[in-house]
Amino acid sequence: MICFGPVSSRRLGKSLGINNITSPKVCSYNCVYCQVGKTVNSTIVRRQFFKPSEILNEIKKHLSKLDDSNYPDYLTFVSNGEPTLDINLGKSIETLKVFGIPVAVITNASLLIYEQVRKELRHADWVSIKIDAADNSTWRLINRPLDNLKFREHIEAINLFTSEYTGVLCTETMLIDKLNDSSYCLKKIAAVVKRVQPFKAYISISIRPPAVSYVKSPSLESLNKAYQIFNEFGIDTELLTGFEGTDTGYTGNIINDILNITAVHPLREDSLIELLNKDKADYSVVESLIKQKLIKVVLYQNKKYYLRNNS
Ligand code: SF4
């Protein structure tokens, strides 16, 4: 299958997915949390999977079946593996511009070491790069890259690409219990993320069965800590916890507001009180959401924060 959706994405609105890598998964990583399973075809050698004309025709057919209300906001390369392994990626991105829909690419960033890949990705309107680790051992533990990939070169390539790229750049960091959720690790990751100056940094958790069974989602305390540390570094951060929060702020519906905001940002106690006051609601609403296990209160530096409960 080359295209699917559109699916609702908090990052991209209605996103029509393009899988430009054939099954089974082909990737330069073998992430412990991968939802596509173990990488059997590990490589950093780019090759052809589909011709750009095949992708163009598939998308054309797909778009012709969609009504206006389903028309996508983005055409997104999100693959059964690593999309930049497709040697035709650059050509395909350029070919798809004919639809007038912005093109997004979600990449693990490992092939940015190649000048050609950096060049091709510059044509995408929106790029998300994976930054789960800020040191070689954590990188090898979580992403399990091929041996011939070198961490220092990887980070240098990310910095090079992000200094040249003029589209919308986002980062995504998968938080994993005990692997990268210590304060020490998080501060180092935040420093790497800060350097690339993303439009938005997303912190995600694994919500589907991971490739390796010992992989666990972080506690809400760790999730909140990660968010606060990223914020302390001055990074515009959002949580991707599987809840489709709309982050619309005050809408007059206090329950929806609390659920939507806490899905994206931990809500500090004083902000929560402010929200309750605006809606002329009292704390019993919060107690009820806690009782229903829809939100949870966690402490960080002696302050209370409220988060969507994912357990
Ligand atoms: S980079 Fe993506 S596709 Fe590749 S192993 Fe990691 S999560 Fe899976």
Bin the strand percentage.
Answer: 15-25%
Number of helices: 10
Tell how many strands the DSSP assignment holds.
13
Shape: globular
Radius of gyration: 20 Å
Distance between the termini: 33 Å
- Major sheet attributes: 8 strands, mixed
Q: How many structural domains in the coordinates?
A: 2
Please render the helix and strand layout as text.
Layout lengths: L2 E7 L3 E6 L7 E2 L13 E2 L9 H13 L9 E4 L11 H8 L6 E5 L7 H7 L4 E5 L5 H7 L8 H14 L3 E7 L8 H14 L3 E5 L15 H13 L4 E4 L13 H11 L2 E2 H10 L5 H8 L3 E6 L2 E6 L3
Helix pairs in contact: 1-2, 2-3, 6-7
Bound molecules: iron/sulfur cluster (SF4).
What does this structure look like?
This protein is an alpha/beta fold and 311 residues long. The protein has two domains: 238 residues, Alpha-Beta Barrel (TIM Barrel), CATH 3.20.20; 52 residues, Arc Repressor Mutant, subunit A, CATH 1.10.10. Helix content is 34%, strand content 20%. The protein is built from ten helices and 13 strands. The strands form three sheets. Strands 1-2-5-6-7-8-9-10 form an eight-stranded mixed sheet. It has a three-stranded antiparallel sheet with strand order 11-13-12, sandwiched between helices. Strands 3-4 form a two-stranded parallel ribbon. It starts with a strand and ends with a strand. The model has no long low-confidence stretch (mean pLDDT 91). Iron/sulfur cluster binds next to loops.
